[in-house]
Amino acid sequence: MRKRATAKQVAEAAGVSKWTVIRAFTPGASITEESKRKVLETAAALNYTPNLLARSLATNTTGQVAVFVDDFANPQKLPFLESLTEKLQAAGLVVMLININNHFDHVNALLHADQRQVDAIILFGTAFRDETLTDLQLGNGMPPMFVLARDSQIEGVPAVVCDAELALREIVDHLHAKGYKRPGFMSGAAALSTALRRRQHFAEFWAEKGVTDIALLSAEKYSAPAGAASIRRYLSETAAQDRVDVLMCENDILAIGAMDEIRGKFGLRVPEDIAIVGFDNYELGGSFAYGLTTYEQPRNEMVDVVLKMIKGKIEPETITLPGRLIVRRSA
Question: Nearest CA to 310 among 154, 90, 24, 133?
Fold first, then answer.
């Protein structure tokens, strides 16, 4: 195997110092255009690329960011991950994707990421509990952590989230204005959905309008089959005259599963018999087959804020951003 060319060899071939070679590959470094051109041309001829691991010893940074993800089966995570990885990589950062679920010890995973010398950790999911982040094993020397797309109640761990309170107020105002009076709410796994606060705000804003009797449905996880199973139990056990006239689902995947079951197995109409609302604006929900009313999170803006915090361009703090209600024929 051919040995990799070194910065010293490039410097000798280009007739410059080794430090000039290093500056040529350092964004924003002071170097003349002519010297930079000469170095880059020589480096290309020698097939040289800078050793980022060696550079990290001098800068005390690795350019690596660990992204912890749970619930990979939820396809709504993919657009978020696409935006997140694209923007991190465009900023010169390497993304380390770590699968976290109930079979893995979160504390050990965090310690492992720290041993990899990552510059930051992004917690993207709902399975991260407060006691995990305050574990005594995770001392003050841990890299900075940021929570994306869910709330964080831990001091020193900022979150960047869609404004759930504003979102649910807009949704409830819309449904109330359309004349719905018997609302229901379908949540995902109980231990995870509490971090999203959508059910809490849904109940609060209906109470302000004098509606306190809300049917609560629970799905075992965030998936279409789980949404279908949840609504199947509800419709099988509830007399037609006592059923909800509108069902808010905690995300679009649950809503899609519920709609398929409502129309397919029970032969009911959406929205005439039961209106459906989702959350997240998953692409499939906008298709003609579903026409799902939903709420879109400001995905790109949320990722931009996390990136600015990691790069030190803004102070780390919890930030909520507004999304937008998307009204379609399902409600």
Answer: 90
pLDDT given for residue 290 in this prediction: 97
Average pLDDT of the residues of the chain: 86
| Nearest alpha-carbon partner for 22 in 5, 39, 44 | 39
Whether residue 145 is found in the same domain as residue 168: no
Same-domain check for residues 241 and 225 = yes
Residues 137 and 93 in one domain: yes
Distance CA 240, CA 237 (A): 10
Q: Residue 115: which domain range? A: 63-162+299-321
Can you give the pLDDT at residue 193?
A: 47
pLDDT band at 302 (very low <50, low <70, confident <90, very high): very high
- Same domain (yes/no): 258, 175: yes
Q: Are residues 275 and 308 in the same domain?
A: no
DSSP 286: G
Q: Full-prediction pTM beyond 0.90?
A: no
